[in-house]
Design brief:
single chain; alpha/beta; TIM Barrel; six-stranded parallel β-sheet; three-stranded parallel β-sheet; 9 helices; 9 strands; binds fe (ii) ion
Length: 247
């Protein structure tokens, strides 16, 4: 059975031009989206980096009009593609105060929040951020767990602990395809086999980054079959964005 290509939605990408380390120009954004549209995707949730000192200007209020502008460019270009607003929230020391001050960037109008982490140790402030979200009724989706640079045993224990607390996991197509190295790919393929991912997403950062993600999609289908991949890139992402009112 082929993956139903009509209903794919990407929950994680850096398509908003000039706000982070993703696309830098509208032309780059449109070039990425044309490729995803041709691969059967109907929309993307825009998730610029937020919540750390890395791109301090990025807040839900700052990003929303920029997503609207990009949507207008798409409409003007005749590209049938839906964008939603969100952010990729970097877990860290000041994340709870940041969320209180700027608001919680959900995936579209849903209650889902995409978070990520970068570091060699999982500090307690990450758990504080997750607790804050769970306690306030949000669903937490951890981006690319397979890519976290923790020592293997700490990585396994941390992921088990997060799963027990109800955190869900977003696999990164680039990791599945091998673009982030063998450790990340081995973890990703194992987790696919064990059905531990809730969704798969692209984490697209620019036109040159799309091919590796497409390879990941192909690898995923080869590894676990089209039915499960359909859940990961179609049914579940669509249910998340439609929970906020649909297209
Ligand atoms: Fe990302």
């Amino acid at each position: 059975m082929e993956v139903d290509s009509r209903i794919r939605i990407d929950l994680h990408c850096h398509l908003v031009p000039g706000v982070d380390d993703g696309c830098q120009t509208v032309e780059q954004s449109l070039a990425c989206i044309r490729q995803w549209r041709a691969a059967g995707y109907l929309g993307s949730v825009c998730t610029p980096h937020m919540g750390s000192g890395w791109y301090p200007e990025n807040t839900p209020d700052y990003i929303a009009p920029r997503v609207e502008q990009l949507q207008e460019h798409l409409d003007d270009a005749g590209i049938d593609y839906q964008l939603w607003c969100s952010g990729e929230v970097r877990l860290g020391e000041h994340i709870v105060s940041w969320l209180r001050e700027h608001g919680v960037p959900t995936l579209g109008a849903s209650r889902w929040v995409l978070v990520d982490f970068f570091g060699r140790q999982w500090p307690s402030c990450c758990d504080d951020g997750i607790d804050f979200l769970l306690d306030h009724g949000y669903e937490v989706l951890l981006a690319h767990p397979e890519r976290l640079n923790l020592p293997e045993r700490e990585w396994s224990e941390t992921m088990e602990c997060l799963a027990r607390r109800g955190v869900r996991f977003q696999g990164n197509l680039n990791c599945v395809g091998g673009g982030e190295g063998p450790i990340a790919q081995d973890r990703a393929l194992r987790w696919l086999s064990e059905e531990r991912y809730f969704v798969l997403a692209s984490d697209t950062h620019g036109p040159d980054s799309v091919a590796g993600r497409m390879q990941g999609l192909k690898t995923a289908v080869e590894h676990v079959g089209a039915d499960y991949v359909t859940q990961l890139v179609s049914s579940r992402p669509r249910a998340i964005v439609e929970a906020g009112g649909g297209r």
